[in-house]
UniProtKB/TrEMBL annotation:
Transmembrane segments: none
Residues annotated to bind heme: 434
Keyword Nucleotide-binding attached: no
PANTHER family linked to this entry: CYTOCHROME P450, CYTOCHROME P450 MONOOXYGENASE ASQL-RELATED
Protein's name in the database: Cytochrome P450
Family as reported in the entry's similarity comment: Belongs to the cytochrome P450 family.
GO terms, molecular function: heme binding; iron ion binding; monooxygenase activity; oxidoreductase activity, acting on paired donors, with incorporation or reduction of molecular oxygen
A Pfam family of this chain: p450
Sorted UniProt keywords: Heme, Iron, Metal-binding
Obligatory cofactor(s): heme
Keyword RNA-binding (UniProt): no
Length: 490
């Protein structure tokens, strides 16, 4: 069923680690070597001066290294601090009127581990085809059918928190990951991961959170630079590369097992299976689609709930108001559904503010300027130029939000508020807008309303700084959220 495992493993290893080729040296005189080096250096200096002084992009501000080379960009991607680095550079994003497609240098694809899926497909026509194929999984009818699954695992989370809180402090960030990965595991591969029952993080989830996020960052950074993809094996830390290999092979086995296992209930991948023969979807593409759904939907939702928990604990005024609203509306947690929680406007405002102050995708998602170029904010941007809007910088820009580092849900409710609320777009815009945003809102309303109804939370460390201790590698690497939990007598 899985083909030649040894051959497949060798194929995956060669892509993850990169082809290893011996460097060939030929004897040469010292004088010739100096001449070659000098010529290369002069060429680089000349090109740098041309770009800095005469290129159409010369008027855009930025550090010199970022202007003449992609080294600055690649370095920030793998540093873990790209959100704060970019924030310091520029607080004034602008937009053009034309469509900027995704930059394939940031989204490298191939026929195996980087097989195309809805996130990394750059071609608008191909993306529209994939989006149409998956649209049924996110219809209102599908959401209604999925809500029971979300409520089931939300209730399992409440039981797990209740049980474990009796033993002392708990890491809520870990508990949230268990829950959101359970939901997407059920919907994308037909089986949960078992972490909530075992009270232990499944190995597959651990690899995603500790290795795959960083491997993706290295992969993006390396493919942004010339020649480096050929020596990728020497650049990516061994534990990260090995973790990525294990994860990819496990993912492929999971989706092939699901494909050959009858399932009475329609899940996300059921709709892909139906189109498999019609449009020629390969096993690797099936794996890529399922992986994209699980990672993009589960990790990001857990990030929002974790950030919201931290900021509520750090903002007692907002926390007390949300508790009053939720606890005066419901008499039992069993009454809480997405529909019953929707009228709670302060709950919605708290979630909106969590999206703003801790956007789940904090980095800039690179696009390409269209053919013929485009004028953006009065500047001409030549075709093929990489452009992006950096979400963290945008939502922490005082020109868009007054007191941007303050968690203040009321800004989303005040009729005379002067903040530029449209500057916060956690689900993106246009044809690339997240298909799963309605499901995300359903899951967030249910989880947060139940958490606030059943428990009181207090951070263990008064000096704990969530922003300071978070690092971003495309997705967030979040610190433990050690919390003292007190169950309510309900």
């Amino acid at each position: 069923m899985f083909g030649d495992d040894i051959k497949a493993k060798m194929s995956v290893s060669s892509i993850i680690y990169g082809p290893v080729r011996p460097l060939l040296y030929e004897p040469t005189s010292g004088k010739a070597a100096i001449l070659v080096f000098t010529a290369c250096l002069l060429f680089f200096i000349g090109q740098s001066l041309r770009i800095v002084c005469f290129h159409p992009l010369a008027r855009f501000p930025g550090p010199p290294l970022a202007i003449v080379s992609n080294l600055f960009y690649s370095g920030t991607v793998i540093s873990g601090h790209s959100h704060t680095t970019i924030k310091k550079l520029r607080d004034n994003p602008r937009k053009g009127t034309n469509i900027f497609v995704k930059n394939p240098h940031f989204y490298p694809t191939d026929g195996t581990i980087r097989a195309k899926h809805i996130v990394n497909t750059s071609d608008p026509v191909e993306h529209a085809q994939i989006r149409k194929m998956m649209s049924h999984a996110f219809s209102q009818k599908a959401l209604f059918e999925q809500e029971d699954i979300v409520i089931h695992y939300a209730d399992m989370l409440m039981t797990a928190i209740l049980d474990e809180s009796r033993e002392g402090l708990i890491d809520l960030e870990m508990f949230y990951n268990w829950t959101t990965f359970h939901v997407l595991g059920e919907l994308a591969s037909g089986e949960p991961f078992g972490s909530l029952e075992a009270r232990k993080t499944d190995n597959w989830i651990t690899i995603i959170l500790m290795m795959m996020i960083k491997w993706n960052a290295y992969d993006f950074a390396i493919h942004k630079l010339p020649f480096l993809p050929r020596i990728q094996s020497w650049l990516v830390p061994k534990d990260i590369a090995e973790g990525a290999e294990i994860h990819i092979m496990q993912s492929k086995r999971k989706i092939l097992e699901r494909m050959n296992r009858p399932n009475d209930r329609l899940d996300f991948v059921s709709y892909i299976f139906k189109k498999r023969e019609e449009i020629g979807i390969t096993d690797w593409e099936m794996t890529a689609h399922a992986n994209a759904l699980v990672i993009a939907r589960s990790e990001t939702t857990a990030t929002v709930v974790s950030g919201l928990t931290y900021w509520l604990c750090r903002t007692p005024r907002a926390y007390e108001k949300l508790k009053r609203d939720v606890r005066c509306t419901f008499t039992s947690s069993t009454e809480i559904t997405s529909r019953s929680a929707m009228p709670l406007t302060y709950l919605t405002a708290c979630i909106d503010e969590a999206f703003r102050i801790y956007p789940p995708i904090s980095i800039a998602m690179p696009r390409k300027a269209p053919a013929g170029g485009e004028t953006v904010a009065g500047y001409f941007v030549p075709e093929g130029t990489t452009v992006a809007v950096h979400m963290w910088s945008t939502t922490h820009n005082p020109k868009n939000f007054k007191d941007p580092y303050e968690y203040r849900p009321e800004r989303w409710m005040e009729p005379n508020n002067t903040d530029n609320l449209d500057a916060s777009k956690p689900f993106l815009l246009g044809p690339r807008a997240c298909m799963g945003q309605n499901m995300a809102w359903m899951e967030l309303r249910i989880l947060i309303a139940k958490l606030v109804f059943l428990f009181d939370f207090k951070l263990d460390d008064d000096d704990f700084d969530w922003d300071r201790d978070s690092r971003t590698f495309v997705l967030w690497e979040k610190p433990p959220l050690m919390t003292r939990v007190t169950p309510r007598a309900v």
